[in-house]
Amino acid sequence: MVIFLVWYLAAKLGLWSTYVLPSPGHVWDAALNMLVKGELLSALAISFRRICIGFGCSVLLAFLFSFLFVLHPGIRTNLDGLFNMLRHIPPISLIPLLILWFGIGETPKIIVIVMASFFPILLNIDAGLAGCDKKLLEVGQVLGFSKSRQLQSIMLPYALPHILVGMRIGLGYSLRAIIGAEMVAAANGLGYLILDSQAMSRSDKVIVGILFIGILGLLIDGVFSLVIKHLVPYSQEIGK
Amino acid sequence: MSDLIINNLTKSYRVNNDPYPVLKGISCTTDCSAITVILGKSGCGKTTLLRLISGLEEPDAGTIKYPANINIGMMFQEARLMPWLTCEKNITFGLPPNYDKEKIRALLTTVGLTNFAHAYPGELSGGMQQRTALARTLARDSNLILMDEPFAALDYFTRQIMQKEVLKIKAASHTGIIFVTHNIDEALLLADRILILKDGNITSDITIACQGQRDILTARFIDLKRQILAALQIK
Ligand SMILES: Nc1ncnc2c1ncn2[C@@H]1O[C@H](COP(=O)(O)OP(=O)(O)O)[C@@H](O)[C@H]1O
Ligand SMILES: [Mg+2]
């Protein structure tokens, strides 16, 4: 609110030119205009779709690998070094190579999202599974559970809060990564919208784009915390 | 034939990198259709012995020979409920999907948790959690149940109810029970046979032949209690 007021006053007093700092009213008009013309929603939809696909792939891959790690510890030992290195590579830095390999279609963008969100999800699932209460695992052991049954009936539900936190973080990273990727190599989406508006000297539209990224983030996160609340009614219970 | 034969069982843990012997060559034969109570002071290795029998722990040496078709159930010292499952779902945990619903309903009544069937463990008191754990153990058709001080955390009255329940189960199904406790009165009330565990060995073996209701305040049981106290060397 304070920021908004300062912004309003600064624009009103004409401290900077309207090109550098358009007034809130100006931005509001631009937003309405963009909404009516549909460019905002279509950009939003495109970015959102990329996030869904990329994030979905990340989640699937992260589950796959963490299950493999639990069921076959040897695989973990073999992949640990590689994963630790890949984890530190900023996904955006891959874009030149990805464009070279896959062109400028959807594939590079999806891969960038996967690179950004896979590791936080994997690390959280893995930590959640590894942190499972040994005493509860013994309950399964006495019941004669196999390793995979242990995983399914005890480790996974136990780790669920952890897993959801990891997915939430991964989702946040996905959003950042796709905006970045769209600013570097895309012809549509929110990131492109911002860069394109800048090229056309429409700083009001740039601000609209930025605000909408924030709103998209809030929305995704809000939906996700609802899901968490719904899925984990016992969450206070674990980790006590 | 329905005997569990333990032969020269030894187990030591490593404490500060030194081996710390807990069980020093235990041998005994227990009837798997009776209630055998293992009695001993805390820290004497009772839990360790049960964990060896259940297969959760490997012995350093010695063997355990199980009767054919043994199906072991275990009730731990703590309730160990799955926090994400309701009381009822905890009881049916690990059962095949076609389990006997009527039986579970009856079990809930037995342990007095019918009204809490849909409560999560976090919403249950310690005693109620322990009762849920008892019901979980009874829900499967084990023919040998290992119980590790299952009622130690319960109040006097709840404990009495649970002890009666154990006797009822045994009378009804001839399920064998190996019951670990440090409570002499509990041992006297439940046991067909009491094994006293001390310094890593079974030092006394007391058989109590007694049909029907027991009154542990009668001369016979008070006498037995003296005998046990002497065996444990508690004045
Ligand atoms: N995992 C372990 N590591 C090291 N020492 C242990 C372990 N488990 C039990 N002990 C020790 O073994 C002894 C017997 O333990 P336990 O069988 O739990 O006794 P009880 O159940 O009779 O109280 C205790 O002194 C305990 O400290
Ligand atoms: Mg113990």
Number of helices of chain A: 10
Number of strand segments of chain B: 9
| Strands of chain A, count | 0
What CATH architecture label of the largest domain in chain B applies?
Answer: 3-Layer(aba) Sandwich
Order of strands across the main sheet of chain B:
5-6-7-3-8-9
Question: Would you list the SSEs of chain B in sequence order as H and E?
Answer: EEEHEEHHHEHEHEEH
What percent of the residues of chain A sit in helical stretches (DSSP H or I)?
A: over 70%
- Rg result of chain A: 22 Å
Secondary structure category of chain B: alpha/beta
Secondary-structure arrangement, i.e. CATH architecture of chain A: Orthogonal Bundle
Structural Rg of chain B:
18 Å
List bound small molecules: adenosine-5'-diphosphate, magnesium ion
Overall tally of domains of chain B: 2
Q: What amount of the residues of chain A lies in strands?
A: under 5%
For the biggest sheet of chain B, the summary is:
6 strands, mixed
Total of domains of chain A: 1
CATH C-level label of the largest domain in chain B: Alpha Beta
- End-to-end distance of chain B: 40 Å
Q: Percent of residues of chain B in beta strands? A: 25-35%
Helix content of chain B: 25-40%
CATH class of chain A: Mainly Alpha
